[in-house]
Amino acid sequence: MIDPALAELLLSPWALGVLGLVIGSFLNVVIYRLPLMLERQWWSDVVAQLRDRDSFRRTFAAEAPPGLDQAAGALRRTLAALGPLSLTKPGSRCPSCSHRIRWHENIPLLSWLRLHGRCSACGARITARYPLVELATALLFGAVAWRAGGQPVALLHCGLVAGLVTLAMIDWDTTVLPDAITLPLLWAGLVAAALGWLPAVTLSAAMWGAVAGYLSLWSVYWLFKLTTGKEGMGFGDFKLLAALGAWLGWQAILPIVLMASVIGAIVGLLMKMLGQLREGRFVPFGPFLAGGGLVVLLAGLPTVLGWIGWS
Hints:
Low-confidence stretches: none
Mean pLDDT: 92
Order of helices and strands: HHHHHHHHHHHHH
């Protein structure tokens, strides 16, 4: 058994805040590399599809032209020339001069401040987003610890926070919410509820939260598509809200969607006024769903329900 005083220290806001800095540094790697890894996999799937003559025959009722094999071969060679890419390899390098980042240049937050936000080799500017993600993760971990009051559930909620920060940033950058994060987050919430590790969420509330989260946005998606012929959101949004329902219970679904919709609309209007809307004139919904989930997690569902007059 861990000494209670030691456990209280390890689960304190300060300790988990420091852990958040370290985790935030790793999240920066995931945010940058996971979309690239997915895109490489998608292009590898394209190579396999171009070489699948049976699939071409079934789809087009004709024989595949010889040019497809040549295109597949050229694409495969191009992919092979890129070299391996994972969350751990290759080591971090400056994108401007390929300088390998040494350990003392990779200390969360402190290294960026010491280097004045520039590469030590070429002086190229290092985006402030890296330390901001580290700082935000640290503050969120500390807030989770403060709210949990030294209880082990804080570690579970820190895992949820890490997943939400990563998903929000990836979706903002790429409009993709990777299954590699949303689905494990969903199952982790259900398992944690089943084991009784989430004091405020029963297994029943978690299960129906996942169902309500997925089906609510799924229904909106199809209603909008059947009405307008357009797709208003991606399937990743359904899975993210299902994951939030698994962690926070079905009662949290409507408050999260309401908060995400209002904040998303405000941000979208501001971006439109500033001319910063991306091609297609849309704003990804995932970051606002993640933000709504964080508000419910940190403020508590009863408090949030009180804000909207449902207490």
